[in-house]
Structure formats: structure tokens, C-alpha cells
Amino acid sequence: MRRLYSITLIIGMTLLVGVFSAPVNGRMRLPSDTPDSKIMHMHPKDIDASLLPLDSIEDLHTTGSPQKVDINTWQLELSGQMVKNPRSLSYQDLLQMEMVRKRVILICPGFFVDYAEWEGVPLSTILEIAGVKDNYEKITFRGLDGYSSSFSRDEAEHNLLFLALKVNGKTIPEEHGFPVRLVAEDILGGRWVKWIKSIEVK
Length: 202
What we know:
Helix content: 10-25%
Radius of gyration: 20 Å
Largest sheet: 5 strands, mixed
Mean pLDDT: 91
Distance between the termini: 67 Å
């Protein structure tokens, strides 16, 4: 009986490891069929989502009130006491910059999960253009809807943050933040500001 219990235990542990395996980097690799109901209770910094299928643009969740934007007059304002070169960037300015493209998972704890391929301008590029001083403490992103989110220098330097202009190879739709939304890898989705109008550095 004891031998049978041991075999059952080993089989059970083997199946569990097969379902959630942790690679060398310490992240839990999620199988492709992991349900959103499980993922939405996890933190993105603890998981490897590389095996998950991408969500289509039509299946991405929406939050906030979509903002109407005249792309011919829209400007991204860069300002703050730690900015040496305050300036405004047009949508065309951003389109001409070198971009990063990466699959990043967005988790809104207890509500939903989105997994898509985002493409946009790295925050580091924006900070360089603005001449941000090395000893800044905080970066605040503000959206046209009045929503804002702030990041410490440590968060900005140790996480991939970028201003996304495209999702799954297409221009970001209005309901998902057009013309620009923040993508913050390994940071919960509630801080991914949409419809960005300004970045302030203090």
C-alpha cells in the first residue's frame, strides 16, 4: 500500500511539474493551454508567457473612455525639473524613431489577461531626447482621459518600458490607446497609461 502511495505521489508531482515548469531564469513557464482564470491571479514578473498564444486585437480587453485625437495636432509633451531639453514630439517624430517589438503580457489582477505583440519607442530613447538628468527620481505618464501613473527611476531602469504605437503589427486602435500607450513589461496592467499626452520627469 505504501509503495502504491509513493508511486501515485511521484506521478502527481511529475504531472504538476509538466503543467508549470520553471526555467533557469526562475520564471514559471506557462503551458499554451493555461486558462486566463489562473493567469489573472499571477504577477507578470513571475511567469514566462512565451508558450501562450497571442490574443487577436479584437479580443483585447478595453478599459477607460476612448479619446478622440486629431493626429495632425497631437503632441507628446516632455517636461519636468529633471528635463534639460523640454520639447514636444509629433506622431510622425515617433514613427521615425527606432522601435522595439516584443510580446508582453498584461495582467489586470482578478479581471483579465491580454497577451499581444507590442511595438514602439523605448522610454530610454525619449529620456535621451529630453536630456533627462541621471539623478531623476520619478517619471509620470499622463493620458488625455486624465489618468496617470508614476514610476520610480529603479522601475524605469530595470523594466522594459516603451511607448507603443502598434499592436500585433497594426496601428493601435482608438479603444486601446491611440496614438500612444505605455507598455510596461513585468508591471501590472493598471499602470499601462493609454492615450498618452505628456511625460514629466522629476
